[in-house]
Amino acid sequence: MASDYSVAVIGASGTTGNEIIRILKERAFPIRSLKPLESEISIGRSVEYANDDMPVQVLDKDSFKGIDICFFAADSPTSSVYAPIAVEQGCVVIDSTPFYRMYKDVPLVVPEVNADKIKGHRGIIASPGSMAIQLVVPLYPIHRLFSLKRIVVSTYQAVSETGPGAMDELTDQIRALFCFNEPAVKVYPYQIAFNALPHTDTFLDNAYTAEEMSITDETKKILDDDSITICATTVRIPVFYSHAESVNFETDKKITPQDVREVLGNAPGVKIEDDPSKNIYPLPIYASGKDECFVGRIRQDISSDNGIAMWIVADNIRKGAALNAVQIAENLISISEK
Question: In 3-state terms, what secondary structure has residue 87?
């Protein structure tokens, strides 16, 4: 690949697409040209890059000529149709939608964990869901040394994951309730303001949601270990940015909270905030806009001989989507230039 790259972003004016463009600039990604792309209904919008407003262009089958790297940040139907076309035209696709994540021949990559999988790509590299990303970044170094057997994770997910409409609805509902009016409910099945919804995707026949099963399947694929048993419960809460996870895990080898602190103290992409005596623990309002996965409330799981309980918080749009995709691209060009 070249030393400067022609880059396209599909879904450029959306929440994740905008953040990808912002991060590309922040991290001085070697861009020769940037092409923001959207479906026809989004024409008229623009995105900001390097202090310039760039008009969004219409996505079609000819959009990928001369493009080296393409970030897909729209939706699964868009990726299913246009990612193969992009690959045929010589582009490497980094897909942040769910569509290709569980394809056998598509690497599912979190660079702090399995950047080596990038080398095996056949034109498409998938970026996992935000919940799986912030789960595996701290758990991978623990798994490598102590061998994970079981994970139980309960999530507390921000509304930004659902998109701008959900953030607007939360704002409107709060305003309505403070004015003693009935809040309008459109995006979620129930009012999200001052509430918690144990429902973040469609329910499946096994009574789990599709997202709960995605966390399970993606985590096993990223860690390359199907023997780990995983149980996930996903909950939407009235927070704008940054997901939180309550995690209990069991290991084959004896493990202590101090072991966890020592391992995670040197782990890439992890920051420990863990001093309960001073009320120091990760919070969504402080994780927003940050690159790290923050870990705290590290303690022995008193229900298990080899168990640990802890709390993980990360910005779902930044680290949970956009930054991971850009890190994949950085590793891609690093591998290609060796």
Answer: helix
CATH 3.40.50.720 correct for 132-316: no
> Which segments within the chain are labelled E, that is strand?
5-10, 31-38, 46-49, 52-55, 57-58, 69-72, 92-95, 124-126, 148-157, 229-236, 243-251, 270-272, 293-300, 307-314
Encode pLDDT of 126-135 as tens digits: 999 999 999 9
User: Each residue of 61-99: pLDDT tens digit?
Assistant: 999 999 999 999 999 999 999 999 999 999 999 999 999
- From the list 331, 125, 159, 118, the residue with the least C-alpha distance to 243 is 159
**Distance (Å, whole) CA 334 – CA 338:** 7
Instruction: Name the residue ranges covered by the structural domains of the chain.
Output: 5-128+321-336, 132-316
In order of 94, 131, 330, the CA distances from 154 in angstroms are: 28, 10, 31
Distance CA 193, CA 236 (A): 10
Residue 20: pLDDT band by 50, 70, 90 thresholds?
very high
The CATH architecture one would assign to domain 5-128+321-336 is 3-Layer(aba) Sandwich (3.40)
